[in-house]
Amino acid sequence: MKMIAFASRHNLSGRLSVPGSKSHTIRAVLIAAMANGLSTIRNPLPSEDCLSATRAARAFGSDVKIEKGVWTIQSSHDGLKVPDDVIDCGNSGTTYYFATAISGTLSDYVVLTGDYQIRRRPVGKLLDAMRDLGAFAVTTRSNSNAAPVIIKGPMRAGTIVFGGKMSQYISGMLLASARPKGKTRIEVQKAIERPYLQMTVDWMTEHGIKVEYDEKNYSFFEVEGPQEYKTVETSIPSDWESVAFPLVAALVTDSEIVIEDLDLSGSQGDSVIVDILKEMGGDVTLDGATNSLKARGGNRLRGITIDCSDIPDALPILSVAACFAEGDTVLTGIESIRVKETDRVEVMKRELSKMGASIEDTDHEMIIHGGKKLTGAKVESHDDHRVAMSLAVAGLFSDGVTEISNAECVSVSFPGFYELMNDVGAGFEIE
Fold first, then answer.
1. Are residues 83 and 224 in the same domain?
2. Is 221 in the same domain as 152?
3. Can you give the residue range of the structural domain that contains 38?
């Protein structure tokens, strides 16, 4: 059902908690599908992307039960099953790339697809790597570098080489590498999005898989297979990618909020947004004793240079914070961000410019000339959840009303976003 969200000047006050991590939830679900036995996942993120991961788990033969706050996954007693039907990954790039790699460990044909955005996202380098290890891996369209794809394994162990721009390719092959017999070595040229690679290694290690890797530069990973995943018994930590939206919203308005139940383990690279916003002059205080942070607005931020290569999902909301800052903010490491659900660099430039922002971009950086007065406008989400939430936050410090089309897409990663923000005074209206 299509929705329009309306945002206008509002200040925030109160306490809130954000949902569980999407990245952690998807890894937990797919590892549970590869494990032998019953897994229990508490506090999973019930977003559309994570539900796509459960559909993939079911396709691989797992019995998945979804209840409020708890998911249980009983894997197939015969190991991963060849799916009877096409795996529809919805809008989840993580599910799509991970499930594609995992499908390469099976001995019969698997077909994977997704929504119209997934069917535009590049997959060629992943398929090349899978073919290097002996799999049949092709797209269904001769002129396309995207889904639908057809996979048939099993892949053998061996050495593959990736450019470092797409961590999801690497993580997918890492997860799959425990299954073939022999040593699989993944070499990575100039790895970016490194926190996500570390997250994958941590999940594999915690669930019984020994991984040798370059802990400094992430230039290689080695897994000797076959190894068996242990079942998952876990509680998913809160999602720092979601924390960013109310945090920035508080700093760009005359607000004071407390965000509770934070993950302070360091497992999520996007937690660095606290340090970034502090460097910009934001009044943010972390409390390790209560796993919470306090954010106070009212002070103008200042422009800085920010490397987004390890935090690609933060670019939309950081571009909004930059509009509120004095001086220029330069966002670098943007190459991989152009091939997410949308070209988020181009989309945020286009939509914020409608509101009066002054933004330039090149192949390598996005420059926001801050301090411009923003005015509400009709803007497009482009069916991108992080774009929709970022534009909603921009509307909180803009004159007039900002109208965001296709606002329902926030359910991909942050179901209940508008309601939660309204609980602390955002005043979003939905039609």
1. yes
2. yes
3. 22-235
Q: What residues are labeled active site?
A: 313
Tokens standing for 266? 């360091």
* Burial (CB count within 10 angstroms: exposed 0-12, middle 13-18, buried 19+), residue 205: exposed
CA 224 to CA 185: how far, in whole Å?
A: 9
Q: Which of 207, 235, 263 is the last residue of a domain?
A: 235
Last residue of a domain, one of 214, 235, 256: 235
Closest CA to 29 of 69, 61, 64, 78: 64
Domain shared by 224 and 249, yes or no: no
Would you write out the chain's pLDDT as a tens digit for each of its 431 residues? 799 999 999 999 999 999 999 999 999 999 999 999 999 999 999 999 999 999 999 999 999 999 999 999 999 987 899 999 999 999 999 999 999 999 999 999 999 999 999 999 999 999 999 999 999 999 999 888 999 999 999 999 999 999 867 899 999 999 999 999 999 999 999 998 999 999 999 999 999 999 999 999 999 999 999 999 999 999 999 999 999 999 999 999 999 999 999 988 888 889 999 999 999 999 999 999 999 999 999 899 999 999 999 999 999 999 999 999 999 999 999 988 888 888 999 999 999 999 999 999 998 999 999 999 999 999 999 999 999 999 999 999 999 999 999 999 999 999 999 999 999 999 999 99
Under 8 Å between Cβ of 18 and 244? no
Whether 192 and 247 map to the same domain: the answer is no
Distances (CA, A) of 66 to 69, 94, 217, 370, 416: 8, 20, 38, 45, 18
Number of domain units in the chain: 2
User: Within this chain, do residues 120 and 228 fall inside the same structural domain, yes or no?
Assistant: yes
- Hunting for tokens 């930059």 — which residue is that? 322
Q: From residue 90, how far is each of 50, 54, 142, 149, 226 by CA, in Å? A: 10, 11, 22, 14, 30
Dihedral pair phi/psi, residue 194, rounded to 5°: -60, -35
Residues 120 and 187 in one domain: yes
Pair (219, 108) in one structural domain: yes
> What CATH number is attached to the domain comprising 80?
3.65.10.10
Q: Check whether residue 160 and residue 302 sit in a common domain.
A: no
Residue type present at position 290: T
